């Protein structure tokens, strides 16, 4: 290696050391809202690298140029920070990753990294596939993983069809995610990880996260949590020992609905039996540099900054949406045409107590409005009607303000019937396994005034 290449590497080391110092000594001391607004983007970086741009720039370029062959060589060997090609990385994508990694680790001592992807489903695939490899040279070696069966329909299909039916990797479904012994009974020497979604979409199931994480670690396995519905404003699984968090950033984080993004956030030095030192030491950097680079699960720089813009107000937005959802849930549970309401904030919900243990508005104790810890239960709920499926369809068709769509987490309220939309491809048997009845209605509460949403529901229910 010549002197010029060595100089590039030494300069990069100093830059990384300064960045690490800034995050450790300054960013890590901020409150959640400040981290959401600034991430790791500093005034110094803005002035030195981005002509003083206060808002993180959008690098709308497919590739990066180098000063000379020596810089190109050490960059392509990952010896200095670079992005080379936007399929691999991009500065705008990096701003989003920094912020998400910091938010998911907020309130803990964990050191985390993040790899963003083109969608939440790509995030789940990239987070799980790295563990679904053989540990021996035996071609017949079985591989399995254990997952709660109450998951999003796309996740169920990816696990049940793409992994089990097509690749022969067994998914062992846990029916009662609050039964630690059921989880334990599914684990054997060929198990690679445990997976759970909480709260779940659309059934609003919840489980004692810490107990299941501890069980996974007793077996030397990582626990992967899908925390899309809660977001780090209400729940940060890494704080309870989870190794990896997957997010469909498309949803509540990017409430504007302007695009699709996924994210994998992982603690460094995670627990796994996979004999891959790079994967263990820094899982998300490994993803970025190797499998995700090759699979092409990249997100556009424009979408990264659009998502980052929405995330800046995450805590306040989730607080408002949660309060509106609670008011609407109380209205629905008293309505004569409604037989059941699934909302974790309702005291009569069978999982209310375990949800209350975990779902808390971040930093409420530092907020002059509250000055103490406050529970919030998110924007999502589901319910059933006395008239079954005909009544459910009539209700949806009669709505004038709430949008009929399959998305969730929008600033606009959205409603759907999962059995004919988001969970249709699962089939009836799989929906029964996941406890999703055919007439279940899923409502995602947006930023409208709750009184207007209740008025819309009331007029539609009157005709249903």
Low-confidence segments, given as residue ranges, are none
Instruction: Give the averaged pLDDT, no decimals.
Output: 96
What gross morphology would you assign?
globular
User: Which CATH class of the largest domain applies here?
Assistant: Alpha Beta
What is the CATH topology descriptor of the largest domain? Aspartate Aminotransferase, domain 2
Radius of gyration: 23 Å
- How does CATH name the architecture of the largest domain? 3-Layer(aba) Sandwich
In the residues, how many domains can be counted? Answer: 2
Strand order of the largest sheet: 1-7-6-5-4-2-3
N-to-C span: 75 Å
Order of helices and strands: HHHHHEHEHEHEHEEEHHHHHEHEHEEHEH
Descriptive overview:
The protein is an alpha/beta fold and 464 residues long. It has 2 domains: 3-131 and 222-311, Aspartate Aminotransferase, domain 2, CATH 3.40.640; 314-463, Alpha-Beta Complex (Aspartate Aminotransferase, domain 1). The protein has 18 helices and 12 strands. The protein has helices spanning 3-25, 32-38, 43-49, 69-76, 91-105, 120-129, 153-167, 180-186, 209-218, 277-281, 283-289, 291-295, 301-311, 314-333, 352-358, 388-398, 428-433, 450-463, and strands at residues 112-117, 144-148, 170-174, 191-197, 223-226, 244-247, 262-267, 338-342, 380-385, 403-404, 414-416, 441-444. Strand 2 (144-148), helix 7 and strand 3 form a beta-alpha-beta unit. Helix 2 packs antiparallel against helix 5 (91-105) and helix 5 runs parallel beside helix 13 (301-311). The longest helix has 23 residues, at 3-25.
